Amino acid sequence: MIALPTNNDIFLYSKPTDMRKGFSGLSGIVRSELQRKPNDGSLFLFINRRKDKIKALYWDTDGMVVWYKSLQQGSFEMISRNGQVSVKIDAAELAMLLGGVSIENAKRRKRLKAA
User: Fold this and answer.
1) Burial of 73 (0-12, 13-18, 19+ CB in 10 A)
2) Is 5 left (phi over 0), alpha (psi -120 to 50) or beta?
3) Among the four residues 18, 46, 47, 63, which has the most C-beta atoms within 10 Å?
């Protein structure tokens, strides 16, 4: 099992992405469209047009990492909120996304938030 960095920010790019893009192409999207630095410790997620493939880009301690998953059946949920280019999600939503659970239809129960 590969441990993805879930203690940092997680951003889902809300436009379909060409899965032929590698480190440089995905880093370019992060810089130009998300206005972020690819090596800031955040996890960036990209889904293709058919929604059956997902790539994750993040900075490990000494270099960029691309994680790639291709579904044999089913699809990932493409989330967009108010026309934003990216959607910030948390570790629970990441687990739901990868597990095939609808994030948009999930209902969160109240929890105490520390100040």
Assistant:
1) exposed
2) beta
3) 46
- Distance between CA atoms of residues 45 and 55, nearest Å: 6
Tokens standing for residue 67: 């994680």
Alpha carbon 77 to chain centroid distance? Answer: 11
CA atoms within 13 A of residue 40's CA, in its CB half-sphere: 14
For 114, other C-beta atoms within 10 Å of its C-beta total 3
pLDDT, tens digit, 9 for 90 and up, residues 41-54 = 899 999 999 999 99
**Which contiguous run of DSSP H or E holds residue 24?**
helix 23-32
Global pTM reads 0.86
Residue at token pair 């990868």: 98
